Hints:
Layout: H1 5-36, H2 48-94, H3 102-132, H4 139-143, H5 145-156, H6 158-175
Helix pairs in contact: 1-2, 1-5, 1-6, 2-3, 3-5, 3-6
Pfam families: Anthrone_oxy
InterPro entries: Anthrone_oxy (IPR013901)
Transmembrane segments: 5-26, 69-89, 101-121
Amino acid sequence: MTDNYLVKTVAGTCVGFSFILVGNAITQSFMTVPALLIDFPKPGAPGHADRARLLGRQWPLCWTVGNQFFRPISTLGFIGYAYAGYAVYKDYKEHVGTRGDWRMFAVAAILHLTTIVHSAVNMQPLNDKLEALAGRTSDKELGNAEAIARKWASWNRLRLVTPFIAGSLALFQLAQ
């Protein structure tokens, strides 16, 4: 690993970002969504439409934090890992035999980029569908409320795995 303290600081901060993202994904997938779906009535049952609309009103409170806090740290993690990878690569080329594998940081950056793209392409449409349950949707969509929320939680697991692997690779690299 490079002896550059700036690179170590940036990479270490990104490791922290990665594990914060992991904690958030665990909380959302295994606590928040299940709590919102406790005793969710079956489609067509009395109270189902009201409960689905309540889910739609509650959902913006869940994903607003992700958009305002976790999106920037995921982006900063990507930029930081890319910087660390570049700096270690540059150091390696200038000082042949230098310890450190820049590819670990490059993979970590790609994993963070994957998380960002997945969030935009796959998760945002589900967020929109869940928020629409509050009042701008048909009865058919209300019937799919629980399935949409469960799909969201399932897809959110990717946002648990990719930062975990990224943070683990970078931490391994920093420990060398």
